[in-house]
Amino acid sequence: MGALSWDDYFMSLAFLTSMRSKDPSTQVGACIVNDRNRIIGVGYNGMPSNCPNDQLPWSKRSVEGELATKYPYVVHAELNAVLNKNAESCSGCRIYSTLFPCNECAKVIIQAGIKQVIFASDKHSDRASAKASRRLFELANVELRQHVPEARRGGRDGTQWEKAEKQ
Ligand SMILES: Nc1ccn([C@H]2C[C@H](O)[C@@H](COP(=O)(O)O)O2)c(=O)n1
Ligand SMILES: [Zn+2]
């Protein structure tokens, strides 16, 4: 079996990173890489630092309203990857994300100078936030590409991708 492709490698790293997330419904991971294939930053969706996790909700919906759900509090994987960067700039980099970026992450990605987005799942494509992202990325000339693992092209064993796609 030959070497793992860069795309499979960095998307695998994004999936591995997503496994740190405590979100019970959707674990997301992201990995930013420069043009020399050096890792610039990784992140996953989680509550902000220094906020005790047990004091914030992980629910998707609540009879008490939005403030009793995770949405107003959780920091998205892509934003964490940019914030965690170990280089001066993300300019000209590409980002691998296990989930297509929402509009808030799209703004951050564009402002950070990232030029390419490689995503695995597009499961929220019907949401307005995903539609707004596509519009922003198109206007800002950020290239979008859905990752097709080597295994799907008849290459290696693809069990990790099958598991991820079922999420
Ligand atoms: N681009 C994205 C989109 C979403 N997230 C996070 C935010 C939530 O923790 C979770 C989505 O939850 P769901 O509505 O699927 O239950 O994913 C992210 O990190 N990056
Ligand atoms: Zn987001």
UniProtKB/TrEMBL annotation:
Domain of life of the native organism: Eukaryota
Q: Which InterPro entries match?
A: APOBEC/CMP_deaminase_Zn-bd, CMP_dCMP_dom, Cytidine_deaminase-like, dCMP_deaminase, dCMP_deaminase-rel, Deoxycytidylate_deaminase_dom
Output one GO MF annotation: zinc ion binding
Enzyme Commission number(s)? 3.5.4.12
Could you name the active-site residues? E78 (proton donor)
Q: Domain CMP/dCMP-type deaminase, which positions?
A: 5-136
- For Zn(2+), which residues are the binding ones? H76, C102, C105
State the family named in the UniProt similarity comment for this chain.
Answer: Belongs to the cytidine and deoxycytidylate deaminase family.
Q: Which PANTHER family match?
A: DEOXYCYTIDYLATE DEAMINASE, DEOXYCYTIDYLATE DEAMINASE-RELATED
Name recorded for this polypeptide: dCMP deaminase
Q: Which gene encodes it?
A: DCTD
